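Standup notes
- DV: blocked on the single-chain target, sequence here:
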Amino acid sequence: MARQNNIILIPARMASSRLPGKVLADIAGLPMIVHVANRAREADIGRVVVATDSADVFAAVSSAGREAVMTDAGHPSGSDRIHEALQLLDPNGQAETVINLQGDLPTIDPHSIRAALALLNTEGPDIGTLACAIADEQEKTNPNVTKIVGSPLSADRLRALYFTRATAPYGDGPLYHHIGLYAYRRDALSRFVDLPPSTLERRESLEQLRAIEAGMRIDVALVDTVPLGVDTPADLDRARQILSH
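- DV (later): unblocked, structure below
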């Protein structure tokens, strides 16, 4: 897809429940959110914009030479925030695909961002996302690690059938750790945010189940590594160790 047809939107808010203000935490001399924007720029697939409700985040991103847009503070999810940002930034509909990149993934591999987008190069999927085979046995039973149950389409691609915090699927074979990055066709994003929260979404506390229950197709690119998500002070220390080198 041509670069001008893609946009990477990074939702960022200060009110994290476990690590408030984390998106502005200093990592190797830059706020975390700027590291995420830099990784997105390195993917080289289109425009990169941070969507925030915080004047401090807007100022930090702008001061670092990256683009930001102010959005409403009342959004219940990052998906709703990027949908508003898309309307503000691209009201004429030039962007055909939208990548939702979480603002707490400072070590995301740019190749992984490109892999999610590439899923939409073929007919069929409405949404693309990422997963990695679980190597740590403890992750298989950890409810904080979301798993994808999927039907293999090729050696490095699944069609998602379900997302769960449980240990699934049962039996021999790999389990896959879901990575919360999404590539949407523009109309799929609009449809998704217009849907009410679904039964299984509420039960599992996993927003992507809303799309599955509505019959939307999500394809999954299998990648080699899970990026570090910064949710705790220990995660932040680890990110500083990684990015200081």
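- Follow-up: The mean pLDDT is 95.
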